[in-house]
Structure formats: C-alpha cells, structure tokens
Design goal:
heterodimer, A: 271 residues, alpha/beta, four-stranded antiparallel beta sheet, B: 415 residues, alpha+beta, twelve-stranded mixed beta sheet, binds adenosine-5'-triphosphate, binds magnesium ion
C-alpha cells in the first residue's frame, strides 16, 4: 500500500497454542499479517478457526505463544501486563458481540470508563468527551440511560462510543452485529464505515455475515489457525470460505450439483 | 486513576448491595463496638481509681505498728513498741524528704446535736498537719492548733455529710455537739470530697485532736497512736522519704540491724500501681477478646469480597479491556473493603460509646455514691478507625489481589 513509515500492525509467524494437559490446541499457526493505518479489514472464517484468538492478540488482550507483534513499531509481545493495558487504553477501542457494558451504569459513565484509566484527564474533560462520543454515534439524547433501558443497537452504539472516546488508532469489533437484527446491524456497520471514511480510524472486524464482509475493503479468511486468503475482492474471499465448507461438510444428498451458488443470507458458516 | 474517583466507584458498588454490605460489616461493627466499650469502661475505671488516689494524695506513706496489724493494740509487750505521737513529730522534724505527718487515732460513736443524732463513718483523732497529709481543705473556720493537741481540747472539725445530717438550718460553726456525753465545739467545716473508690462517703467524717480521742474517748495512753500518715515532699521523693522514715524509726525503736522491725511502712503509690496493673490487665484481656471478634469480622469481609470478585469477574474484564491495570483493579477492591471496614468501624464506635455510656449509667445508678465518669476518648475513636481500616486492608488484600491477577480474556468470557 504505502511505503512510507512503518505499518500500524505487523504480525510475523504468530502462534497461539493452548496447552490443555493431554492435548495441545493450536489456535493460531504461523500467522503473518500487516495492516496499515486507515484500513477496513474483515476477518472471516468458520467457527473455531481462530478469529477471536487473533483479535485478542491484535487487541493486546493476549500475547502470542510464539512470534512477534509490532503495534505502531512497539513490540507488544515482550511488553508487561501494564504496558499492554496502556496500549489497550490509548491505541485500541474494543467492541464486543455481547456489548460488555457495565450494568446499572449510565451510558455516559460507560463511555467515560477508558478515560478513567487514562492519566491526566479531568472529570469535566471526561464528561465532555464522553458526551461528544455519544453524540457522534447518535445517542446524544440517551446519556443517562442504563444499558437495561436501551435497545441492542443502542447498547452497541454506546459500546462504539466507548471504543472511540480515547481517540484510538484501531477499532476492533469481534462479531459486533452477532446479537443484532439485520436492520440494526446495518446501522452499526454504517457507523463503523463512516468512522473509517471520515475519521480515518483503522477498523478490524470479525464477522460471519457476508453482507458485512462485502463492505470491507480487505478480507482475511482464516482456517484452522492460518490465513488462507488475504484479498480485496469479496468474490475471492467467498470462494475461499465456501471451499472450506465444501471441504469440511459432506454435501447433503438433496443439494444440487456442486458449483451451484448458495442463496445469500443463509450463508452463515457452520462449525 | 485518582483516589476520589476510586472511592466513588467503591461507594456505588457498595450501594448496589446495601443489605449484603450491612451484613458484611456486622462482624467489624461488633468487634469495634466491643473494643470501644471495653477501652472506655477500662479508662473510666482507671481514671476513677486515679482520682481516688489523688484525693488521698499519692505521695503518702502509711506507718503501722507491727503489733497493730495482728489485732487489738497491745502495749508494752516485750520489745514491740507502739507508734507514738513522738514518732510522728520526729519524722516531721528529722526527715528532709517529708513534708508533713499526722498521727491517726481511730474511734467510733454517736454524735448528738439537739434531738438529732448521727453515727459518722469515720471518727478520727489527728494532728495539726492532717489537712495537708489527708489532702483536705477547709470551707469554714479553722483547724486544731498545737495547744488543742497538748491540752486535748474538746473541739472538732466535721465533714459535709454531718453538716447535712445534723444542721439543716443552723450554721454549725461554734455549735456544740456531744459524743459519749462529752461536749465538743465545732471549729471547722471541711470542703466535700465525695465518695471513695469503694463507694464510701468520705465526707461522713468527724475529726478531733488525736490526744482528745485517745484520752477522753478511748481512755488509753495519751501518746499511743494507731497509724502515722507521712506526706512526702513530692512523688519522686517517696523512696527517700521511705528510707529516712525506716532509719529513724529503727533508731527510735532500737531495732537491731537484721532484726524484723516492729512497724510497717506502706507506700500508697504501690497500691495505686497494683490497681493500675489490674485495670490495665483487664483492659488488655477484654480488648484481646474484642480483637478476636475483629478478626472474625475481617474474615467475613474477606469472604464477601471473594464472592464479589467472582460475581464481578466480567466487570473486571471490561475494565481491563479498556485499559485498567492490575493496580487499578487492586486499588478498587481494596478501597471497597477498606470502606466497608471503616463504615463498620464508625458504626461500631458509635455503638461502643453508647454501650459504655449505658453501662456506666447503670453502675452509677446502682452505686449511688460513686460517680463513674463516662470517657469518650479521641484516641479511642482514632484507634477504632485505624483498627478497622487495618482489618479492611489485611482481609481485603487477598481478594483484591486475586481480582487484579485475572486474565482479561477469561474474565470477559466469564458468565
Ligand atoms: N482458553 C482456551 N483454551 C483452550 N482452547 C482455546 C481457548 N480459547 C480458544 N481455544 C481454541 O482455539 C480455537 C480458536 O478459537 P476462537 O475462539 O479463536 O475461534 P473463532 O474463530 O473466534 O470461533 P467463533 O466463530 O465460534 O467465535 C478453538 O479451537 C478453541 O477451542
Ligand atoms: Mg469468536
């Protein structure tokens, strides 16, 4: 893409191995990946392929068993717990499938949370920035509602506001629409898109929804802990995804001959 | 994260579960209440004891005749000699560490004035310096002179209780009362002293010259006395005074070196010290019982904090995901348990003060003559708060530490 400066994210030969006594689970097997600032990347792949594991790695919630991860040139692999906490606080915003908002805490206070752990932000600045972030996601009129008093889509938008409030370089979303209906999903995705295009924020999202994947500028397909496709073309990605399925699942007897296109919208990969 | 914000978050977390918070702090409340009550009752007891000794004078030596201790006074029995008024005078004259002395001769009987009569608790014969030695002050009139002593005058000085019992309307000064049919003129009236440690009314007293008591009331030897009270010049001169008195009396009584003396010298500070040790030990004992209940309270806090950390695992995960460090989480939970314990401490302190006030009130109503002071000490309040926060820190640390060591991913995944 661009050849100036260093990339925002650089993973080289990253492995994640869970040692469960008897068995070893290799969730990531030698992932190499470079993401530049301002990209919009969708991570796709069947269940259990390691998408969340990779996201957690990228988000500095976890660290690789092997390999190295440079975030903005900083080595996140060798960093202390506190160092990674600082990176999460300053550089990364998270959006989760199940929103992960603090219960019985107002929207604005939820959004303030990252600023609470940032040094040198006064109470009035905190409030101001939280309100701004909520306005940005269109919730300026819901400041003091608790999560329980908001719809799923609104809750997810609060979560997006929380992810944005620290002006992070990257916004990571692990199946952000997994718990939303298709209409609200579109709203949330539209919001992410706007953020990417207008604020230039880097977005990495995990999704099973082809409609969402379609809108990404770049698609990574993960299979068995490896990146099997890295493309800007959705058709290529789709083929790669389907090959996985065809490979994994014996076609049911009543399905027509191979190569027939599956109807869209029912394309959630199986696990 | 700043401390104030942390405290606010902790308070909110506690408020979400008031019932549980209340039950959690119960142990600390009881512990601190017990400590407070024990300490303040202990303090009021020892201040009472101290007050009593001060009213008698802590720089007092009491000299008994050795024979006197073993029953009624015997005279001229072998080598054992009784104490005499001469001994008292000699001590006053010759011992540099001694301020004043007074012989004491005790008796008892009815005091009659007009058609009322009264039996004073104490009827004593004393010397001219007894006001100093006995730590008394006169309210009206004068005291016995050398002439009153040498001529065994029929005069007396009375305490406030006698004034109240015998003289409702008249001014007692210069009135004449009768004891064993002998008329005594009242020449002085004492300031009230109140009750002593065992609740005896110290103002229920009548004093006469010791010669008068010996000769006219007891009809014994003019010169023999029961006890000599010696007042040292200062508390720190007590050892000197004691040594000088022993030496002088041994000379006067011809006690050979190595032989047992025929008198005993008792130091009132020793008694005060012993009482101090006893009350101190009691306080310590009761406080340690209270301390145990504090530990139990602490374990209660720890238990609930562990439950709370488990319940809020996801919250911890969320906080970590947005950038909370282990230290931030540790502080949050530690502050929460310190606040719990401190609230418990304050409530407990209040209850403890109320309890000790109640207990002293009951004691005071049962023992009408003594006034137990209610002591609410600032140090005890500070101690209660320090204690309870220490309990909060000690027992809150482990749960908080566990919380801070959670893995963010696992915490987020926790259901
Ligand atoms: N803590 C863990 N201990 C052991 N194995 C784990 C752990 N976390 C993940 N795994 C394994 O790692 C593999 C990848 O899991 P991951 O959650 O990344 O999958 P995913 O692609 O996100 O799947 P999904 O689409 O269902 O969310 C799985 O086989 C999973 O069982
Ligand atoms: Mg996943």
């Amino acid at each position: 893409m661009n050849d100036d400066a260093k990339p925002l994210i650089q993973l080289s030969d990253v492995w994640k191995v869970y040692n469960l006594g008897e068995v070893k689970v290799e969730a990531l097997r030698g992932v190499c990946l470079t993401i530049e600032s301002g990209e919009y990347v969708a991570l796709m792949g069947p269940s259990g392929s390691g998408k969340s594991t990779l996201m957690n790695m990228l988000g500095c919630l976890d660290r690789p068993t092997e390999g190295s991860y440079l975030l903005d040139g900083e080595d996140a692999t060798s960093m202390s717990r506190n160092g990674r906490a600082r990176l999460r606080n300053r550089r990364i915003g998270f959006v989760f499938q199940n929103f992960n908002l603090l219960a019985r805490t107002s929207a604005v206070e939820n959004v303030e949370l990252p600023l609470l752990y940032a040094r040198g932000v006064s109470a009035s600045q905190r409030r101001h920035r939280a309100v701004e972030a909520l306005k940005q996601v269109g919730l300026g009129d819901r400041l003091h509602h608790h999560p329980g008093q908001l719809s799923g889509g609104q809750q997810q938008r609060v979560a997006v506001a929380r992810a944005l409030v620290n002006d992070p370089a990257i916004l990571m979303a692990d199946e952000p629409t997994g718990n939303l209906d298709s209409k609200t999903s579109r709203e949330v995705i539209q919001l992410l898109r706007t953020l990417n295009e207008e604020s230039g924020i880097t977005i990495i999202l995990v999704t099973h929804d082809q409609d969402i994947g379609r809108h990404a500028k770049r698609i990574l397909v993960l299979h068995d802990g490896q990146i099997v496709e890295d493309t800007t073309d959705f058709g290529t990605a789709l083929r790669s995804l389907h090959r996985d399925e065809d490979h994994l699942v014996v076609p049911p007897p009543h399905t027509p001959a191979q190569g027939a296109k599956r109807p869209e919208g029912t394309s959630k990969p199986m696990g | 994260m700043n401390l104030l914000v942390t405290i606010r978050i902790a308070l909110r977390a506690l408020r979400k579960n008031k019932m549980r918070a209340g039950l959690t702090i119960l142990g600390v409340v009881i512990g601190i209440a017990a400590v407070t009550a024990m300490v303040s009752i202990g303090q009021s007891a020892s201040s009472l004891v101290q007050g009593q000794f001060e009213s008698l004078g802590t720089n007092i030596l009491v000299i008994f005749s050795a024979s006197h201790r073993h029953g009624p006074v015997h005279h001229g029995q072998g080598s054992i000699r009784s104490l005499t008024a001469g001994d008292s005078e000699a001590i006053a004259d010759e011992c540099p560490a001694v301020l004043a002395t007074s012989p004491i001769v005790g008796t008892g009987g009815q005091v009659i004035y007009g058609n009322t009569n009264w039996r004073p608790r104490e009827m004593v014969g004393v010397g001219t310096d007894y006001l100093i030695v006995g730590n008394w002050t006169l309210r009206h009139g004068g005291f016995f002179t050398e002439r009153d002593i040498s001529s065994s005058s029929k005069v007396c000085v009375i305490g406030q209780t006698l004034v109240a019992k015998l003289f409702q309307t008249t001014n007692p000064l210069n009135e004449t009362i009768r004891i064993s049919n002998i008329p005594f003129r009242i020449i002085g009236i004492l300031e009230p002293k109140g009750a002593n440690i065992v609740g005896e009314d110290q103002d229920n007293i009548i004093m006469m010259p010791h010669t008068t008591v010996a000769k006219r009331l007891r009809r014994t030897s003019f010169d023999t006395v029961d006890v000599i009270l010696v007042s040292a010049r200062a508390v720190d001169r007590m050892p000197d005074a004691q040594r000088e008195v022993r030496q002088l009396l041994c000379e006067r009584h011809h006690v050979a070196p190595g032989q047992p003396a025929d008198f005993e010298v008792q130091d009132m500070t020793e008694i005060a010290d012993i009482l101090g040790v006893i009350t101190g030990t009691m306080t310590l004992l009761l406080s340690s019982i209270a301390g145990i209940s504090l530990v139990v309270g602490g374990v209660g806090i720890m238990n609930i904090m562990l439950v709370s950390v488990t319940e809020r695992t996801r919250e911890i995960g969320i906080r970590m995901a947005v950038g909370a460090r282990g230290g931030d989480i540790l502080r949050q939970f530690l502050i929460e348990s310190i606040l719990l314990a401190m609230i418990g401490g304050l409530v407990g302190f209040g209850l403890g003060v109320a309890a000790s006030a109640g207990i002293t009130a009951v004691i005071n109503s049962l023992m009408k003559s003594v006034e137990w002071p209610t002591v609410i000490s600032i140090p005890a309040a500070v101690l209660a708060i320090v204690f309870s926060s220490a309990v909060g820190i000690a027992f809150g640390f482990y749960p908080a530490w566990r919380a801070s060591k959670l893995d963010p991913i696992e915490a987020l995944r926790y259901e």
